[in-house]
Amino acid sequence: MPKMTMIPRVSPQARRYVEEVLDFGFHNAGSPGISARLEERFAARFGRRYGVLHANGTATMHSALLAAGVGVGDEVIVPAYTVAMTGTVALYSNAVPIFADVDPETWTISPEDVRRKITPRTKAIIPVSICGLAADMDPIMKVAADHNLTVIEDNAQCFLGKYKGRLVGSIGQFASFSFQASKHMTCGDGGILICDDEELATGARKAATAGYSTLTAKPGDNVVAEELRCHPSFTRHTSLGYNFRLPEIAAAVALGELERLEELIAMRTTVAACFSEVVDACDWLIPQKTPDGYVNSFWTYTVRIARDDVDWAEFRKKFVDLGGDGFYGAYLPVYREPVFGNLSDAVKAQPERYPHFVGLLPDYRQVSCPVWEAIQPRVIQLKTNYFELSEAERQADVLAQTIQSFGSSGENRRGSAVS
Ligand SMILES: Cc1ncc(COP(=O)(O)O)c(C=O)c1O
User: Fold this and answer.
1) Going from the N-terminus, what domains does the chain have, and what CATH number goes with each?
2) pTM over cut 0.70
């Protein structure tokens, strides 16, 4: 991959495509075909047959679940370490999210725990490429095949990552990506769902586009032909769908960014290498493990503090005081977000309002994924989207100074999975 020194935040090509959309103007019955180009090229980049653009990388997973027929009475297995929306999409579909614990070193979903959590109601698994690192997909695909489950890769945080030589996004029945502002390629907000199965792609298209009867999986086919819809007796909606369309102007930005995706990934990888040099010399900051055969696309450079006498908040304060950018901690275990426990309470208090969850929704306050619970409070996610190498190098220097300021410790040396 090329080494970056400085790259623009928005590519010149993205600006040109935006101009193309504006020059075309906005018409109810026509488009400059940018969405079609983006769907086709994005899917092809990942070796997939179909791409369906969405307004964001949450709606993508919601459509995928609907297309896979997931609904009332079904369970969807998701990891404890992810953004809450990986779990809430199951609820949007009237299904129940079931949380699986993570691997103690990669922090991606544990295939063993997935297997333990399978029940006759399980219909789908959403493994997440967390912080840019793929989940261990082979055993997940195996368990899915054994139980006839749909696998939806949540790759919001991973573009051009690899799993045992395969591109992340080429493995599950569906793969979902987000173009939200913090992601590798962005148009502010947006997302895409890719897959190989025409029926699934058509189902996702209809789920995302008001259930219009005539839509197909063809690139850009998100509008009903005018000669049909002008007719007073045309029956438009044969299934229940949402409006998750991505505006063409956002698609224009995303198309430009797709054309320099390698450069964007090289930038993140170079920044991660700057941090890695510093972290490798410290025996109490333990990076997320990238197993052999994986390529991490480093949405963030993620480490955990393995010293009990170093407090997360104090470490962050020192880093910021020394001139570092504020970093994020890791998301709470998703089931600990109050929305889940509150829903469990509501189902108990008003069963008549939630008949589809009665006897099925766990009491999320009782759910526990102990591996992730032990690691989560100690995680540091350093940002990697620096568009100038000198700034990334400066941040790495500040990290080195921060580490130095805490001195060394004889305890909790590298090697223990959890301190
Ligand atoms: C792992 C993961 N999944 C899904 C999403 C949802 O994407 P979006 O914000 O585009 O809806 C995000 C974005 O925050 C994410 O990080």
Assistant:
1) 12-260 (3.40.640.10)
2) yes
